[in-house]
């Protein structure tokens, strides 16, 4: 007779299988997305649910990923930053995708990539529901960072869509050296301005801000430090989307031994009712994220 342990083991095996299938699909699709970039630099006519005007490249990446991920047995729902509603594609786990994070970097040929989050819940999910997260980074090489089963792994993706681990058990360096805060400096609240000035006064800290969150987060994962798209005076919730950006990078950085925050709590503790809700994002070494919370708590 099947026992509870058997059911748990079956469940874990099933999630393992779906996770691996999602990684395979994302890695297989990455070279096609990259190859399609040069001819898809123009904006499309329509706005996305966040009121932004996507490039043809955003739409192309979303269409490919929806088709490939939607075909995976065990994936029930696909949602993306480019689609107002989640799509039912079967039964099982929910997958949220930012198909081309940082696509404004396409024209100046800077980094951009794809963010994926897998939730064991209908959408909108909470941070407690996240099972795995990953991002593909289109840089001088194509790499993929994954967080699953309490560990972070870095892969290189080949042009044929195969991928090999190049770093296992990735953890943030103990001594941070980079920082990057998004938004216009004139729009930062005073507490953030004061904290950034404090960070800047540390001779060991260097500014690294490239305009694509995952490129900047990858700097933090590699060199230690902090990335933020902070609360702004005219946009207290900041710019980044909790389901598609906040939860996955918060999960990745916390799994790598760092910390995440919306300014007051772990990003994974943030709860929002709307699929496209925004949140301030601070991720990096715990000491630096704690510093943000200490400065912002002064205004409470
Ligand atoms: P800004 C890209 O559009 C994005 O969503 C993130 O990848 C990035 O961190 C942020 O917006 C950049 O925003 O205001 O600096 O252009």
From TrEMBL:
Belongs to the FBPase class 1 family. Homotetramer. The gene is fbp. It is an enzyme of class 3 (hydrolase). Substrate binds at residues 101-104, 209, 239. Residues 46-164 form the Fructose-1-6-bisphosphatase class I N-terminal domain. This is Fructose-1,6-bisphosphatase class 1. One of its GO terms (cellular component) is cytoplasm.
């Amino acid at each position: 007779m099947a026992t509870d342990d058997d059911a748990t083991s079956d469940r874990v095996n099933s999630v393992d299988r779906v996770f691996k299938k999602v990684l395979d699909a994302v890695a297989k699709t990455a070279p096609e997305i990259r190859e399609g970039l040069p001819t898809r630099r123009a904006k499309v006519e329509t706005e996305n649910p966040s009121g932004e005007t996507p490039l043809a490249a955003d739409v192309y990446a979303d269409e490919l990923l929806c088709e490939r991920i939607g075909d995976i047995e065990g994936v029930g729902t696909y949602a993306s930053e480019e689609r107002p509603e989640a799509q039912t594609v079967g039964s099982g786990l929910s997958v949220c995708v930012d198909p081309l994070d940082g696509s404004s970097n396409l024209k100046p040929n800077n980094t951009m990539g794809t963010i994926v989050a897998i939730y064991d819940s209908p959408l909108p999910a909470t941070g407690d529901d996240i099972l795995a997260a990953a991002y593909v980074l289109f840089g001088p090489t194509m790499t993929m960072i994954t967080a699953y089963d309490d560990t972070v792994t870095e892969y290189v993706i080949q042009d044929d869509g195969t991928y090999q681990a190049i770093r296992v058990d990735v953890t943030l360096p103990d001594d941070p050296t980079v920082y990057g805060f998004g938004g216009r400096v004139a729009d930062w609240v005073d507490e953030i301005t004061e904290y950034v000035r404090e960070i800047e006064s540390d001779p060991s800290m260097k500014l690294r801000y490239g305009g694509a969150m995952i490129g900047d987060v990858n700097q933090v994962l590699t060199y230690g430090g902090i990335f933020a798209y902070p609360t702004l005076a005219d946009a207290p919730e900041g710019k980044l989307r909790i389901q598609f950006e906040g939860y996955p990078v918060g999960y990745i950085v916390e799994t790598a031994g760092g910390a995440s925050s919306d300014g007051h709590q772990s990003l994974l503790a943030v709860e929002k009712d709307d699929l496209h809700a925004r949140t301030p994002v601070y991720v990096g070494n715990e000491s630096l994220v704690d510093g943000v919370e200490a400065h912002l708590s002064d205004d409470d």
